[in-house]
Amino acid sequence: MSTKHVLVVWEHPRTNSLTSAIAGDVIAEPTVKGLEVDVLDLYRDCFNPVRATGSERCYELIGG
To answer: Phi/psi of residue 44, each to 5°?
Structure first.
């Protein structure tokens, strides 16, 4: 039987925000149930849906 995976995608600049707290709960619940959880934190990955001049530095910092 294969392991089930959950992908949690979230974004917020403050780690002490309500969004962060909710993301933590969303991540914890499937973990407790034995599911494998992958987390994609768009803010900490420097994600910007609009690629602008000068954004290459951030992209280079994350190894892109």
So the answer is: -75, -15
